[in-house]
Amino acid sequence: MLPSRSPAFPARLGDHSADRRMVMLSAMALVVGSGAALGAWVLLRLIALCTNVFWFGRLSVAEVEIADASVGLLALVLPVIGALIIGLMARFGSDKIRGHGIPEAMEAILYGESRLSPKVAVLKPLSSAISIGSGGPFGAEGPIIMTGGAIGSLFAQCFHLSAAERKTLLVAGAAGGMTAIFGTPLAAILLAVEVLLFEWKPRSLLPVIVAVLVSLAWRATWIGVGPLFPTTASLPDSPWTLPGAAALGLLVGLLSVVLTAALYAIEDAFHRLPVHWMWWPALGAVAVGLGGLIDPRVLGAGYANIHMMLAGTSTTDAILLLLVVKAAVWLLALGSGTSGGVLAPLLILGGALGWLSGRMLPGSEGFWAMIGMAGIMSSGMRAPLTGILFAAEATGRFDALAVMLACSAAAFGVSVLLSHRSILTEKIARRGRHLLQEYGVDPLDLLQAQAVMTPGPETLPGTMTTSAAVEFFARDARHRSYPVVDEAGRLLGLASRTDALGWRQGVGDPGATLVETLSDRAYPVVHPDATCSAVADLAVQSGVGRIPVVSPTDGRVLGVITRQDLLRARLDSRRQDSHRSRTRLLRAFPGPSSRDGAVPS
């Protein structure tokens, strides 16, 4: 039981639940953001090193494009070699390095108390660098989100923190890593909110912002400044621009649904193979090599493809070939369980579809490639605000936010209507874990005890003897417990059926009064302004199903809250989502009164 007469209401009711530990977490986020930026810098250098070693045969960290290499039929072999190395790392290192990284981070947050191992922090960037450097058609965003999250998680595990506080630092590291790679601080913060945090609280939001800003500051020194994909494509001056963006959004949303279904169908096919999963990445890499022979631009992260599409300097045949081949090799490679991200391939595919649609829309193809990028990120990752801000920050085109909004909203709507899961959450669902990407305020946090209590409850007088109480519970009691009060109605304690059973079996003096028997007992109590969530917590902690509500001034019993009252309040709130009714507008504007003929003032 709880300490005697311990009220279940916070010391200060307010709009937010933040306390001074938020300041501590923000200070810790300075370290996490710096570590995430360093991890991003290391990852980019590792990718460049692996690319140079595999495709150019030299030890260098200079940035190069795989499409510029002349290796002939070795293009079939090099991706397989890289995939074999990754399979061995996953088999004998950690299988957490498999996949695109973001689902693993989400799973650690939701089900692993935000604990990631040091192995993941080391092996994930290394395996991703080998995968991308050997030709894997992936981006660095998923790996750096996982790596930055691991850095935040490991740092948090060095201190005495709660799971929620570890989650905050894990997400701060993930957002910091994404900022360092792409230079998109606003999009990184929104990604944290829409995909990773599963809450919107100052306690978690402010440390994430701190980590993102610190990472952005380090990025200026270590990586560079300015938009990653700058474009000068002009905003179309046409009344058909917004409708065209919405139409493009419908196409992009449908594309993301098809890609998600195809990815997991391919993954299911690999699971049916009669070989160990360690060899699956090598089998997927065969398709990567074949795709590289058809179009070398599909190999690697392919950021040059995005630059090319935004510049509008390509042909319809080339963009169509890129769209088909990139989708095929990416799906086969990722479905095989290798290490790599989803964002860069999605941007390329959405940009390609936008470029092709731009042939029939007002303005340049490069402009519509940018809009397609925003749409597919919004629909593929189920993060519409993130997709809009990412495209705007990555290109520097904030003047196109309205057009991006039209495309992203349409794409997001198509995605959520046609597919139950996103490309990120489907993997978690296949492991038997349900995830809901919708945020709402718990109705029990909004309602107070006085709104749901049963007023004027039945009570027992403190002068009643225990023998009389035994008889009352045997014959007349309708509840499991009753408040015991004095002559003025002030709460003295709680008497329950369990107590009556003990008295009946000879425990205590049968002639003693209830106030004498219960004077040393602890009992839960709440005040009228306590939130129902606090009452629910108290009911679970105390094991008492009927919590008295007392006046904070004189201790009089005002009412009782039961578990049924709490559940009914929650059900009433949920009914607002499904109960439909029509309001007659005429009732809101009544005519002259039937009694005096006057029009109400």
Structure description:
The structure is a single chain. This protein has 601 residues and is mainly α. The chain has three domains: 22-222, Clc chloride channel; 241-429, Clc chloride channel, CATH 1.10.3080; 443-577, CBS-domain (Roll), CATH 3.10.580. The protein is 59% helix and 5% strand. It contains 25 helices and eight strands. It has helices at residues 21-56, 74-92, 102-111, 118-133, 141-156, 163-182, 185-197, 202-222, 241-271, 280-294, 303-311, 316-335, 343-357, 365-380, 384-395, 401-418, 425-429, 443-446, 449-452, 466-475, 497-504, 514-518, 532-542, 563-578, 585-588; strands at 6-7, 454-455, 460-461, 481-485, 491-496, 524-525, 546-550, 557-562. It has a three-stranded antiparallel sheet. A three-stranded mixed sheet has the order 3-4-5. It has a two-stranded parallel ribbon with strand order 1-6.
Low-pLDDT sequence parts: 1-11, 593-601
Instruction: Tell me the CATH architecture of the largest domain.
Output: Orthogonal Bundle
Give the structural class.
mainly alpha
Q: How large is the share of residues in beta strands?
A: under 5%
The CATH class of the largest domain, by name, is: Mainly Alpha
**Biggest sheet descriptor:** 3 strands, antiparallel
**Distance N to C terminus:** 57 Å
Give a short overview.
By secondary structure, this protein is mainly α.
Secondary structure: elements and pairs:
Elements: E1 6-7, H1 21-56, H2 74-92, H3 102-111, H4 118-133, H5 141-156, H6 163-182, H7 185-197, H8 202-222, H9 241-271, H10 280-294, H11 303-311, H12 316-335, H13 343-357, H14 365-380, H15 384-395, H16 401-418, H17 425-429, H18 443-446, H19 449-452, E2 454-455, E3 460-461, H20 466-475, E4 481-485, E5 491-496, H21 497-504, H22 514-518, E6 524-525, H23 532-542, E7 546-550, E8 557-562, H24 563-578, H25 585-588
Parallel strand pairs: 1-6, 3-4
Antiparallel strand pairs: 2-8, 4-5, 7-8
